[in-house]
Give the backbone structure.
Amino acid sequence: MTTTEAVTSDPNQAAEEALLARINAGELIEDMNDLTPRYRAILERTLEIAAQSEVTVLTWAYTGFAVAPDIGAKVALCGTIQDEVGHAHQQGMLYERFGVDMQKLAFEEDPNNYWSLPIMEFPIRNYAEFVVAQAFLDRAGRFTTWDLELHCSFAPYRRTLKKVNFEEAFHFRHGALWTKYYFDQNEETKKLVQDAVNWIFPWGYHWYGRPDHLKGHPDQLTYKVRKWTNDTMRAKWLKSATDFADRTGLDVPAKFDEEKQDYVIDGMPYPMTFDADKADWEWKETTWDRAIGNFKKGGPHAPRLLRTPAARGVGKQAVVSETAVRAALDTVMDPHMNVSLPDMGMVRRVDIDADGLVDVGLVFPCVGCPAWDLIQAELKQAVGAVDGVKKVKVKIEWHHEWNRNDITPDARIIAKEHGYCI
Ligand SMILES: [Fe+2]
Ligand SMILES: [Fe+2]
């Protein structure tokens, strides 16, 4: 028996060839039962990377919340986070049809195996950086998901990405609009935007990984899971991103080359490595192996670092005693009644974190109480004096109502002595 005969008589190989013939004839595969082992493995790997990378966008975007300058920007950030949760969920649901437990994959996977884009491992330094990243990187990500929506031979994946791509387009348009706004606003914001572009633009160009001549012809293309190669997507992104930069007045290391009649990088070594400590590119050309090794090392928010017990605060010693905080609250009075806030039933919540932040949730017996400011100032002073407290936050909990049963019986008697009948 020759090797060729051995291959063609292998039932698995025959099934792969039969499926490939259907795919090459333009048929879309709809039924899970039609998946061959090899096709199934390619789809699983594609989905795993896609779902996990949408999750790492969340931890990254969350770091932007603290630096968002106003409520509108914070709402936009929350909207993005909600969209990205949806993207992870949509692709995760499809992945579950392959028998994968997404709960486990999201929360119990060894973080060393978690697939993450390195740029998502760097906390956002200012809001300009966030909008610039949207303008350039959501644009980059969308070419990969758009290719899948337009060309994937597995029909359910195409449908899964419809909503995802609609929202990614919304993200990069939002990023483009605000990049222009901050670039034009004043000299200070213009510099913030240009600095962000210098950091983000090369990430967009490096987004798609190794060039085609070093990658060969991956199975994803053979089985038409995707159609565009890395080089095709990179060229599409370069054109789109450079046009946007030119329209906006941004300085980017790329241009339209009249001679070649094509978009080319201009003054940017490729590939290059970055310095994770400085969160900056080194602007020196390197080999692809070195560049990939550097990307894998990642940044300070790499999943393997975020998932450690210490990063989640587990095992940290509490520095503030709750008993001491409660005792301090007992000294803060409602000035109308001369009854302490806890006895008035006004303290609904005391949260203390491991860094010494105390967060107190209050309810007030009357809306528009004239003593609000006074009570809060006294509370902050009393609790702030407790050992280990770094900061005190007071939150009025509008969703809780105070009612007369919240006051303690003893306090009711004292209130009565002050002329209040509760
Ligand atoms: Fe997304
Ligand atoms: Fe996005």
